[in-house]
Amino acid sequence: MPAISPNTPGVAAYSISGSKAFVVNSILDFNNIPRAFTVSYPDPAPAGLSIELRRVSAPAASIDLDAMTDGVVDNTTISGRDVSVNRFTGGGTTQLTCNIQDPSEAGILNEHYELRVRATNPINWSFSVDNAFNSTVVRLVCDPVATFNGLTPNLLEQQLLTLTADDAVGPLAAPTVVRATSGDLVLPAPSPTYEFGHTGLIAIIGLPSDPLPSQTYQLVDASLAPAPLPGVYGPTPVPMTVDVVHGGITPDAPDFLSARGTFNTTLEARPQRAVLVLDRSGSMSAEHRWDNAKTAARIFVNLFGEFRNNVDPQDAIGITVFEDSACVFRDPRPPVNGTVDPLITAVEGLDKPEQVAANIGSTIFGNPGGCTPIGDGLAFGLQILQNGGLPADARYTVVLLTDGDENAGTVKIGPGADPANPMTWAQRIAPSALPAIPDINPIATHPDLNLFTIGLGSAPNNTVLNSLVAKGHFAAAVTVGELIDRFTTMLKISQEINKLTARYTQDPNPVQPPSPQNEVFFTTTSADKFGVAVLRDITVSPVTPTTVEIARWNGSSFVVEPIPVQTFEGHHYIGVPNASAFGAGSQTWRVRRLNAGVPEPLAVTPTSSDVIAFEDLHVKSALTLDQKDYRTGDDMNLAVRIRHDFARLPGATVRAVLDAPDGGLGGMLADLDADDIDRNKRKIRSPKDRSRGRAALIEALLAKHDWHHLPRCNPGDSGGLFVDGTDILHDVDGDGTYTNTFARVNADGVYNWTLFVEGVDTSGNVFSQRLDQSTLATIGVSSHTSIIRKETLKDAPPGMKAVKVTVTPLDKFKNRLGPGFDDTVIWAVRDGGVFAHVKEHQPPPVNTDGTYTRTVVFRSGSFPTLKVSVNGVTLPKIYVRQKGHDDRDDR
């Protein structure tokens, strides 16, 4: 470890140990009698030796002392001062003595000189002056300390990590900086920076860090949110590094005083438990939703088993389904009989992945038909994990899928109360003393629980689903075709694997030909294992018998590989646990689905694909949005970090496609009339699974226009997605972080991002990956554009006045909030007024036209006021009746 001794300035001799460089600043007084200093270093001379003397006082000059010949005076390059050197070698040490004198004999006082000494590798040096009174050392700085503080030899995958380095200055007794703090010349202390990284063969988002002034760094993503360590499939050596620079000492050579510290760690795999929680309510029978959900579950199980094969014997996965025989909420508390419906069940209990994969045939899932108890279903899935035991250091994954809004059960997760008094979600997962309700803690609040939610179609309460999970853990499958793709995206996140881009060309760069084609290509990059799922056409009955062929490019042609193919009800699966046996670097694969030996068409779109492929990690791309969700009028800032093992990876192409709402939903719902709503009630597919509130209005809107889903668009079709007019994210700083800004969040709803990443890794291998993330935008209510109207009513109670106040919440684009947000439109009356419905003991009014109303009653002579908060935005104070107002005007 670098150190200087002694630790005080102004002495005659110093030793500098364990350092590859040091810088000395001295004040010299001299005349025709030379001033001398000596630098000692090992003999033979170390590699990269450089000894440079700089005159800092004007006129500045410098000279390379190591290049000078012994005894030769150079009186030109040091601005009129004679400089000579002499070397003395013996006992394995060289002493280089430098003499400086003024040939004019006029005498020199307080002339500032700097000596820079450097070698390639750390060695032990010494530095001395002939007279400490006339050659005063005012600052001596060597390489900084670069060591870790408190880092352990073993780290766990997916844990949050904070790295701490020791102080670059070192301990007081053996510092790396010695400087005078008073006198004729006081020079600043260095400004250390710390850059954390690693040299392991695994990509870690958050490393390397930028150079930081802080000794402590928590791994973060591109939006500065904590980023966990990646998943691994066995013990993975990860030497951690910290590069420390004593900045500010040599501005023209910032890294002159620097050091790298390394601490050998190993990243360990952890047991994993996963449960899939599937909505089996009546509405899932439409549009092959349930068939696709079963296929998605099977693919998840296949891929989970493939990538966890022989990783940990405690790995397990299970599948639960939920529905309810009655579309009502119930009070679960005794003495009311409100038990969880027996239709909520585990179709596959927590078991080894290979056993679950063998069991998930065509009949075990059952058929949809009941109501939607989302809270009970999710709690049941959590309880499955808890009942299976909580192994030490285990990771837990729960994926919840639903196509509707909750309308049944003993737990209500959404806002607003229900007269039947079900438990809230917070109550359900909190410790409870009620013996009839098994407590699901600690798994519900376990720090290693990753909960994912997927909303299918247009009717789910996506706001509620998003509120349950962390940023990036919500997905929306607007169409049924996207469901499997969204489901497998959750697997990518939970298992830390790459989702590969499926394409119709062997070369990843050309424009895709029109869909469909009868063969699909993808590229693996230095993969140890990969898995491929190929969907079958489940829209025909019976499902057409098919098989799958996978071929690998050998440099001149595609050769069919004899890799076993498993066939299930909705898909084929190919698992390759030893992909490295096919060779290192990039491998291009061709996939065909064959019917009686003839290739069938395969669909590949920006939002879904018939071929889904994953590989383990060496090159990793990670997409980050700067917020979990947005309001209309916000900017969405996107960032993609790309790493190849320990290196930043510039030079890639990152292209974005956005599936966004096409128009404001609130306005469309507000335009429904009573006939539209009544008509939909009469034609509901499953009376048992009747939607409520806003979900019912959405279903009526779909029925009115005969839509399968709400209108969608790609805003990039009108001339580029981002503010620069492109669909591309740019690596502005050349550090492997690609960014751009989308500034057209003009409508509320789900925004589904798909990014295609293509490039060449540090070894020259081509890679091609796909990133997906969903986010929500709600109406960003504007106090300037929202409309407030007052109407004096004629039928007020005797001696009272009545004013009806109507608020139409709008955003800055004049999009309507729309109906169904009565729980987030908060009214407060003051100054002598009272709400009519409260006075009459009635429920508050609920409108379906996008307006929100309250009637305020008050006595003559009162001047009541209202405050209204909409989605957290407070509108201007409303003066129901102002002073100076003539009562006769109310008539």
UniProtKB/TrEMBL annotation:
VWFA domain span: 273-491
Family annotation (SUPFAM superfamilies): vWA-like
Domain of life per record: Bacteria
InterPro entries: CLCR, VWF_A, vWFA_dom_sf
Protein name from the UniProt record: DUF971 family protein
Species per Swiss-Prot/TrEMBL record: Phytomonospora endophytica
